[in-house]
């Protein structure tokens, strides 16, 4: 559900922003993918360097310990938020949203061309 919301936001942003030009992805789509990739690499590097040297020293964050006491509605909200905010899922969902926008544009263009062809054939 969280990924659906993120995908919907991406579709809303990419639709009017012209995600494709002449059957190729727009330049901003490629730049977005590169930027997201760089952010993921930087985040992974940061996590790697901040990990405890001794694994026995690792402790759960306080918010994770508080999960045991959440009500079902709050638990559902947390699950949706965590799924949408997952840094591993976000770039894939954003790229999928951009691809869906391109596919929809091609579909609409195909329907228009088909309709134009039918109109020409029936007007003769």
What can you see in these coordinates?
The chain has 124 residues and is mainly alpha-helical. The chain is built from 5 helices and 2 strands. Strands 1-2 form a two-stranded antiparallel ribbon. The longest helix has 35 residues, at 89-123. The protein is elongated. The mean pLDDT is 75.
Measured as a percent range, the helix fraction is over 70%
Q: What kind of sheet is the major sheet? A: 2 strands, antiparallel
Number of helical segments?
A: 5
Quaternary state of this entry equals single chain
Give the number of DSSP strands: 2
| End-to-end gap | 51 Å
Spans of 5+ residues with little confidence (pLDDT < 50)?
none
The share of residues in extended strands comes to under 5%
What structural class should be given to the helix and strand makeup? mainly alpha
Topology diagram in text:
Elements: H1 2-14, E1 20-21, E2 24-25, H2 27-50, H3 62-65, H4 72-85, H5 89-123
Question: What's this model, at a glance?
Answer:
The chain is built from five helices and two strands; from the N terminus they run αββαααα. It is mainly α.
Task: For the structure shown, list the relevant keywords.
single chain, two-stranded antiparallel ribbon, mainly alpha
């Amino acid at each position: 559900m969280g990924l659906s919301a993120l995908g919907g936001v991406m579709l809303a942003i990419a639709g009017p922003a012209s995600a494709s030009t002449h059957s190729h992805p727009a330049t901003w789509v490629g730049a977005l993918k590169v930027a997201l990739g760089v952010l993921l690499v930087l985040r992974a590097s940061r996590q790697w360097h901040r990990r405890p040297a001794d694994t026995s020293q690792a402790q759960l964050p306080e918010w994770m310990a508080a999960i045991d006491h959440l009500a079902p509605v709050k638990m559902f909200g947390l699950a949706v938020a965590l799924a949408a905010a997952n840094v591993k899922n976000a770039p894939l969902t954003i790229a999928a949203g951009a691809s869906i926008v391109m596919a929809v544009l091609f579909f609409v263009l195909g329907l228009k061309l088909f309709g134009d062809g039918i109109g020409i054939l029936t007007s003769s």
